[in-house]
Design brief:
single chain, 146 residues, alpha+beta, 2 domains, 4-stranded antiparallel sheet, 9 strands, 31% strand
């Protein structure tokens, strides 16, 4: 099965993201990353350009297992369509989380990657285990400590 189908199946099983929301997108795989791009991109003439990747990084695959880690970018774009494994956090928790801190919080979710949400805003990806959300927000997107 292709990386795109495997990755879409992962997103559907983990977050309830129905594959139909990706109907105008395609997936491209490298050795350890999955990219999502508009279906219109393959028709664009890229000759003469040095292209390192097309689209945004949607996820990373670990040691060719079926285990993926979704990126913050992917979840911020498509997370609003998710129906499960979402953790809602308070204003105070949001401040800590966006500074790169982990959050102690019991949540009714499966252990593993979760969507961290504050109100209607998807903040990104977290790794939930035993009442704790390990911060997965990239350092470049974190707020500086005051």
């Amino acid at each position: 099965m292709s990386a795109g189908r495997d990755f879409m199946r992962f997103l559907e099983e983990r977050f309830g993201l129905h594959k139909g929301i990706f109907s105008k997108f395609s997936f491209h795989e490298t050795s350890d990353k999955v990219y999502v791009l508009s279906v219109d991109i393959p028709g664009v003439d890229l000759s003469g350009l040095r292209v390192f990747s097309i689209g945004i990084t949607a996820g990373r695959q670990f040691d060719k297992s079926a285990r993926y880690k979704p990126t913050t970018n992917l979840l911020q774009i498509f997370g609003k369509f998710a129906t499960r494994n979402i953790v809602d956090i308070t204003d105070e928790e949001k401040e800590d989380y966006m500074r790169g801190l982990d959050i102690e919080k019991e949540a009714d979710v499966e252990e593993g990657y979760v969507i961290v949400r504050h109100g209607k805003d998807i903040l990104g990806c977290g790794l939930y285990s035993k009442g704790s959300i390990k911060n997965q927000v990239p350092k470049a997107k974190r707020m500086a400590l005051r």
